[in-house]
Each structure stands twice: as structure tokens, then as C-alpha cells.
Design brief:
384 residues; mainly alpha; 19 helices; globular
Length: 384
């Protein structure tokens, strides 16, 4: 009985976990589709391995510790049409790099001296970026009719916010699916593409690992340290104060995913504070939401990879944009505990602006916020 109670605290499957499962789809799905369209990755492997990493972290953490594509890598791959082999090599190299940073104790050392105000700024900066992306790229149209779907979705979420009996994201997703099935999806194409596919085994060669490191891993590591590790650790502490989820554990699971993915043609993945907040805001409280979410990708990869371009129309981009918008707002809301200290609030806002607008902004913002905070503390002590 005690074991069952503990297990239920870590993994549940109910309507709220199902609702939470869709809290990060607005970030993940467009990036995955962008990578698939820009390069020659294996579709089945991409979906299956992405889903498998979700399930792995859901079991390990017992909270909605979502898995996301590595954003900096994804942007470079999409914009420069990098080959799949270099992408896999970059994923393996970033996994090795993060493992070395973790086991050497450097990640824990850095986390010990980075002030909370800098992390809050990173969270807000990411929230601004996600909200802007949602509004400018997803929730768009040529006529007023194009805005009806997202506007109705926003109203549903606002009316049912924090309603555990009627989770808002489930209703919004169902609304979007019904709309898509009526107007967008060709079910004949979906059925004709059904078939069983398994991940493709792959061994990255040394040249691809080296090229992937310099082209993809180096721009990614600063973002990963600030958002995927430091900010995610702080967010987990904020949302689940009774759970002890340290920097070392997050660094190790980040490494583990990227040491596995390349050998089965999976895209590089990370943890993300946005994904954690997104799933939590829409109802996820255990690893169950992540497991449900991962299972969706595995099903698409195993059975529908040949018709995935039709399957993904089930989730209209305007609906994904609404979900992404509320994920961003959730991140921005973390700054509320800075409101009582005007100086810290200003530092956090400056870090947010830098993070959201500069090249390598998360790294620059993290360094800026840390330096300014320590200088401010030194000034206070000197004046005393």
C-alpha cells in the first residue's frame, strides 16, 4: 500500500495529467517538423526516440519534466539545412560535453554562485520569446475568420484556468481536433500511410561528431546551461518544493538522452523550464503527463510515420500558438517574487530583455545579471 501510494505521487494517469500532456506541444512539434523538412532525418526514428525520452524522464523524475528539442541546434539545422549525420554527431558531442561538466562538478559550482535574480531574468526572457513567437508566427491569418479558433481557445483557457474538473487544454485540443478533422485532415491519406516502423540504428563517425561539436554544440551549450539546467532546476524547486531535484541529476539525464539518441537516429534533446511550466499550468503534476505525451509521439512514429504530414494537421498551428502563449505567460509570472525588491526587479528585467533580444542572449544575460547582482551586494555592504 505504501509503495502504491508513493507510485501514485510520482506517476498518475487521469484527465489532469492528460491535459498537462499537451502543455508543451506548441514548442516541440513545430521545431520537430522544421528539422524534418530541412534535413534528411528518419521520420519514424525522430518521433519514436523523442517519445521514448519523454517516457524515460517521466519515470526518472515523477514530475512533468518535459523533454524538448535543443533549440539553438534546431535553429541552425533549419536555417542552414545541416545534414542528419552532422545533427546526430552534434547531439552526441553535446551529450559528452554536458556529462563532463556534470561529473566534474562545474555545473554545481556555477549554480551555487549564480543568484536567483539572474535565473528569474532568464525565465522571463524565455517567456517573452515564446509569447512573441506564438503571437507573430502561430496566431496569424488573412481575415477575421482565421482568428476565431485562437480567440475561442483563449477564452476557454481563461474561463477554465486551474479547473481540475474540466481541464482547459483538453477542451481546447478537442476543439482543435474536431475543427481539423472537418476542414484540414484527409483521413484517406492517413489510413493509406499506416504501417509499422522501428528506429534506425546509427553509429556517428568521428568527422560528424567534430563538425557537429563546432557547428551545433558550441552555440547550444550556453543556452542549455542557463535554461535547460539552471533555470529548470530553479523552476522545479519553485513548483515542487518538496522534491529534491538537483543540478547534477538534471545534467546527468540531459547527458544520458544525448548519449542514446544519436545511435537510434533521434534528434538532440534537453530539459526545458518552458516545458515544465507548460505541462504544470495545464494540469500535469506527476510523470504521468510526460509519459502520455511521449506515448503520442511513439504511436505516430511506429504506425503513422509514412503519413505524418497529414497526421500533424490534427493539431492546428493556431491552437499550438495559444498553448505556447500561455506557456510563455507562465514563465513570465515567476518574476512576481522580485516585486518587493526594486533593485532585484530591475536586474531581472534587464536580464530578460538581454535574453530575449541579443544573440547568445541567455549566456550574456546570465553573466550580466550575476555580475550586476554581486556588484550591487558589494555596494550595499560598503555603504553599511
Amino acid at each position: 500500500m505504501i509503495f502504491q501510494s508513493k507510485l501514485r505521487e510520482r506517476i498518475r494517469f487521469d484527465r489532469n495529467e492528460l491535459a498537462g500532456a499537451f502543455g508543451d506541444i506548441g514548442t516541440d512539434l513545430p521545431l520537430i517538423l522544421g528539422i524534418i523538412s530541412a534535413t534528411n532525418v528518419d521520420v519514424a526514428s525522430t518521433f519514436i526516440m523523442f517519445g521514448a525520452m519523454q517516457i524515460l524522464t517521466g519515470i526518472i523524475y515523477g514530475i512533468p519534466m518535459a523533454v524538448q528539442p535543443l533549440k539553438a541546434m534546431a535553429v541552425i539545422v533549419i536555417s542552414q539545412k545541416v545534414s542528419a549525420n552532422v545533427l546526430y554527431g552534434g547531439g552526441l558531442s553535446v551529450g559528452i560535453a554536458m556529462l563532463l561538466l556534470t561529473i566534474s562538478g562545474l555545473l554545481s559550482l556555477l549554480n551555487r554562485y549564480i543568484p536567483k535574480v539572474a535565473i528569474r531574468g532568464i525565465q522571463v526572457g524565455l517567456g517573452i520569446s515564446l509569447s512573441t513567437l506564438a503571437i507573430t508566427k502561430y496566431i496569424t491569418g488573412n481575415s477575421i475568420y482565421d482568428y476565431i479558433l485562437p480567440l475561442v481557445s483563449v477564452l476557454i483557457i481563461l474561463i477554465l484556468w486551474n479547473n481540475r474538473r474540466y481541464p482547459s487544454s483538453l477542451i481546447v485540443i478537442a476543439f482543435g481536433i474536431i475543427y481539423a478533422l472537418i476542414f484540414n485532415v484527409n483521413l484517406v491519406k492517413v489510413v493509406s500511410g499506416v504501417g509499422v516502423r522501428l528506429p534506425v540504428f546509427n553509429i556517428p563517425n568521428v568527422e560528424d561528431i567534430i563538425n557537429g561539436f563546432f557547428l551545433l554544440a558550441l552555440p547550444q551549450i550556453p543556452l542549455s546551461m542557463s535554461n535547460s539546467v539552471f533555470a529548470t532546476s530553479k523552476t522545479a524547486e519553485d513548483l515542487f518544493p518538496d522534491r529534491r531535484i538537483g543540478i547534477t541529476k538534471i545534467g546527468l539525464t540531459y547527458s544520458l538522452m544525448n548519449l542514446i539518441n544519436p545511435f537510434f537516429c533521434g534528434i538532440p534533446t534537453c530539459h526545458g523550464t518552458g516545458g515544465l511550466v507548460g505541462q504544470y499550468n495545464f494540469g500535469g503534476r506527476t510523470g504521468g503527463s510526460v509519459i502520455i505525451y511521449g506515448s503520442l509521439y511513439i504511436i505516430i512514429g511506429l504506425f503513422f510515420s509514412e503519413s505524418f504530414s497529414e497526421i500533424i494537421k490534427i493539431f492546428p498551428f493556431s491552437i499550438l500558438g495559444v498553448i505556447l502563449l500561455f506557456e510563455g505567460i507562465g514563465l513570465i509570472s515567476f518574476i512576481r517574487d522580485m516585486a518587493e525588491d526594486r533593485e532585484n526587479l530591475m536586474i531581472a528585467l534587464l536580464v530578460a530583455i538581454i535574453s530575449a533580444n541579443m544573440k547568445n542572449g541567455y549566456l550574456v544575460g546570465l553573466i550580466f545579471g550575476t555580475v550586476v547582482w554581486y556588484l550591487n551586494e558589494w555596494r550595499k555592504k560598503k555603504s553599511d
